[in-house]
Design a protein that fits this description.
CATH class of the largest domain: Alpha Beta
Number of helices: 16
Radius of gyration: 22 Å
Helix content: 25-40%
Structural class: alpha/beta
Order of helices and strands: EEEEEHEEHHEHHHEEEHHHHHEHHHEEHH
Strand order of the largest sheet: 5-4-3-2-1-6-8-7
Largest sheet: 8 strands, mixed
Number of strands: 14
Number of domains: 2
CATH topology of the largest domain: Nucleotidyltransferase, domain 5
């Protein structure tokens, strides 16, 4: 029987979706409803091999957004299923699963309540995640719903990694600890890296670098998360598009007093108006920053220098924490597409066994192919591996439906096989190479 899985990722003002045919391993459709709850809503619907479809449709809540998605998916002209009954299950991204969940889980009333209880730990993310689940369960009550948590993969961190040096009762009473995020991405690329290295995950020490608008690094020891850059919330860690990353916490009350703003207002600035946009005053897109820096913009150059330095600093710290390192992996939009950041961050590290091949690094500018960018003589391999969180989502949902799912150390994904190939990406990569030949 064909297994068709709908994946949903509901943010405060958006609802992203993908429909995946698990039997034939193909994406049937994907898209996003933007400006949910804020007015001027519209859906962008993509079907491989066809022109994108955009439709204006007001969605005052997530239930209306889900109804719009279902309507589009079942339409004669733009749909990919004849009837919504063809969808076998729905997988939901949930940003914060706290300490309770170390793997994906079938959603029950108790599970949903646990996500509600965690909202204070992820006030920007869990509330819309919960709203999306509630809306989807109302629109699609006849199918199983599964939660895939960003935090689950990172629950193997030892206490010395996740415990903050604050009064211990803050952890006992209020759950204050490092949780980490982007876990699904780190899971996928770490498993793929072990395949490329040619060793079982349990024998691999890695540093996985997820660099997009949000940035998180994971130190992976013997195949499991040992440390992670994000903390109680996604604000801690490296420099990001709009987030500050690590700062002296005393800055918050200092600026609150100096400017007359509330602590909440300062926190909002650290989340939404800091990082690269804070330094440059304008840019979050690294391409814009590089272009501006080349044109003589000193603050754009400073932003680039700061980001590369912070990347280098975290890699050095995690290398020391692991003691032995097999590979560094770059992933996500910037990690996959910016040889400038990768090259600057890892230059002159030959004494640590890290030797970047400049030509390989420059050529690895694609979201459709796994690339080795270190020299053959490099003791530590450096890879660029496009992430595939949606595939992990879908695989978890199907395994739960089939009753053979478990934590990742006891469950083998199909992409852990040396024979695994993402046919859609390989086809796209061939087209990229053909296009390069024509322009060269």
């Amino acid at each position: 029987m064909t297994q068709i899985i709908l994946s949903l990722n509901c943010g405060s003002s958006s609802a992203k979706y993908q429909v995946y045919d698990w039997t034939n391993k193909t994406i049937l459709a994907k898209g996003v409803v933007e400006r949910v709850t804020v007015g001027g809503s519209f859906i962008k619907h993509e079907i491989p091999g066809r022109e994108d479809y955009v439709e204006q449709h007001e969605c005052p809540n997530h239930k209306e957004a889900l109804s719009l998605i279902i309507s589009i998916l079942t339409r004669e002209q733009h749909g990919v299923v004849r009837d919504i009954a063809e969808i076998n299950a729905v997988g939901h991204r949930v940003v914060h699963g706290g300490e309770k969940f170390a793997k994906s889980v079938l959603i029950s009333p108790d599970v949903l309540q646990a996500f509600r209880d965690l909202c204070p730990l992820a006030p920007l993310h869990n509330p819309p995640n919960v709203q999306g689940i509630e809306a989807a369960m109302e629109v699609l009550p006849q199918v199983p719903h599964v939660a895939v948590m960003d935090t689950a993969f990172l629950q193997t961190m030892p206490p010395a990694s996740y415990t903050y040096a604050v009064p211990y009762e803050w952890y006992e009473k209020h759950g204050v600890r490092r949780y980490g995020f982007h876990g699904t991405s780190h899971l996928y690329v770490s498993k793929r890296a072990s395949v490329l290295i040619g060793k079982p995950p349990s024998q691999c020490n890695l540093i996985t670098c997820h660099i997009g608008n949000g940035v998180s690094f994971t130190a992976i020891k013997d195949g499991v998360a040992f440390d992670h850059s994000m903390g109680l919330t996604p604000l801690e860690g490296l420099v990001m598009g709009t987030r500050s990353g690590d700062i002296d916490p005393a800055i918050i009350p200092y600026i609150a007093v100096k400017t007359g703003q509330s602590v909440a207002a300062v926190e909002n600035i650290l989340n939404k108006k800091s990082g690269l946009v804070g330094i440059t005053g304008t840019y979050t897109d690294r391409r814009d920053i590089l272009k501006a820096a080349a044109a003589g913009d000193k603050r754009a150059q400073l932003a680039f220098d700061i980001e590369c330095y912070r990347v280098r600093k975290y890699i050095g710290a995690y290398y020391a924490a692991l003691g032995r390192l097999d590979a560094i992996v770059f992933t996500a939009g910037v990690g996959e597409m910016s040889p400038e950041i990768r090259g600057r961050a890892l230059e002159n590290l030959e004494q640590l066994g890290i030797e970047i091949d400049p030509t390989r690094n420059q050529e690895a500018r694609t979201r459709n192919h796994e690339s080795l960018i270190s020299k053959d003589s490099s003791r530590v391999k450096v890879f660029v591996i496009p992430t595939d969180e949606e595939y992990v989502f879908t695989a978890d949902v199907v395994a739960i439906l089939e009753g053979n799912y478990d934590v990742h150390t006891k469950f083998k994904y199909s992409f852990e096989s040396p024979e695994y190939v993402n046919k859609m990406r390989e086809e796209a990569y061939k087209k990229e190479l053909e296009a390069k030949k024509k322009t060269s």
